[in-house]
């Protein structure tokens, strides 16, 4: 038996199909992954993501620590509570993890992936040794994501008046502590919504209020197709320690100029040498794309898919693929047969609509 | 609970088989569709394909994974369920009626005797847990 989130009994009561996910017993769906996907694109859904790791940074040099640790530039986060998405790199530029850090002052709040938790904490503590910065894991917290076009409206009746007022004043990618809960307008779906970090003891009642307000419970299965449609990487699939952010469609999260973060020199060398790129693929015919299918350009193998799925919104097979070049007729091999694909720039879907553009050769 | 109609024969690989006027109809079991989750695509064989028992003749793709469908008996494919192209969800909604995959004219119907009864197949499914 794996670790259980504070909402384990809620998932069981709803008849969820449970799976092991990074050592945690998590709901993969509550009956229909497709219906859950459409609920988030068309209405509102709630995800239990309490398996993710909440970390606090304490000390007078947290800013300097983050400047050394992260490929994105935390000093640019001027607004209180502003969220920053960043890669954390090895010296050779390989991605140790991707994470969100919030400009909450001291302590600074960070959320990292569950499967990389121990590695991340050990790495961060190693780097923090040179700074007045202490890494504290918060295992007493639950994390819920409420996402969808009606998420904010339905959320408003499930939280306190002061929390609702705080949420109404948040800009995209900004969060705030109110009444002991941290609520941020972030997510992993390409829709409106929030992520709520709250005491584990408050989570079951909050969950119940959301469900009563008509917010549908969503499993990790739909979470994966929603994030893929939104063109958002999954650590361990689309990037890992063997690839850099430049090869992972994360160039827009890098600030290299005038900075000396871990991995910066390796990225500069890669920039001049040129690297593979992570692109989006859309099947032209019927079918489903999945991870590790070979990708061809004009008959020559140029890479492979890193994530793939049947897009419930587009009703087409879609994938992310790491390729050495994009040119001519692109195709993907499925069970020995090549199928034509269109190479696109992610995201595939935003706010319920197709948004992808064909990538120029 | 999954349904295991007693008038059908089964394979341990989760196909069901029904003999109907000398033609064998093939689909996947209720237990299998439930384990796969929402079906999003079905790749069917071409009509007139000849196959041997155990050949991979079709593929069912769910939100979770791609799974091979095996020919339960040697023979010739005479019809495929083209409704599954536009409505693969029929496999979930009606695994034993509207969600059938293909029909085979068997070389020898007596080979059906070697397949599993509903009770034996149910026992196979229970052992998986």
Gist?
The complex is a heterodimer of chains A (361) and B (129). Chain A has helices at residues 8-13, 33-42, 62-69, 117-128, 151-156, 161-169, 203-212, 220-229, 264-273, and strands at residues 17-21, 24-29, 45-48, 53-58, 83-89, 95-102, 108-112, 134-137, 141-147, 175-178, 181-184, 193-199, 216-217, 277-283, 294-297, 300-311, 316-323, 330-334, 337-345, 349-350, 353-354, 357-358.
Overview of the structural elements:
The complex is a heterodimer of chains A (361) and B (129). Chain A is built from 9 helices and 22 strands. Chain A is an alpha+beta fold and 361 residues long. In chain A, the strands form 5 sheets. Chain A has a 6-stranded mixed β-sheet. In chain A, strands 14-17-16-15-18-19 form a 6-stranded antiparallel β-barrel. A 5-stranded antiparallel β-sheet of chain A has the order 5-6-7-4-8, with helices on one face. The longest helix of chain A is centred in the middle third of the chain and has 12 residues, at 117-128. Chain A is globular. The termini of chain A are far apart. By secondary structure, chain B is an alpha+beta fold. Chain B has helices at residues 30-36, 83-86, 90-93, 118-127, and strands spanning 9-10, 15-20, 23-28, 39-43, 50-51, 56-62, 66-70, 75-80, 102-106. In chain B, the strands form 2 sheets. Chain B has a 6-stranded antiparallel β-sheet. In chain B, strands 4-6-7 form a 3-stranded antiparallel β-sheet. The longest helix of chain B is centred in the last third of the chain and has 10 residues, at 118-127. The interface between A and B is medium-sized, with 17 and 13 residues.
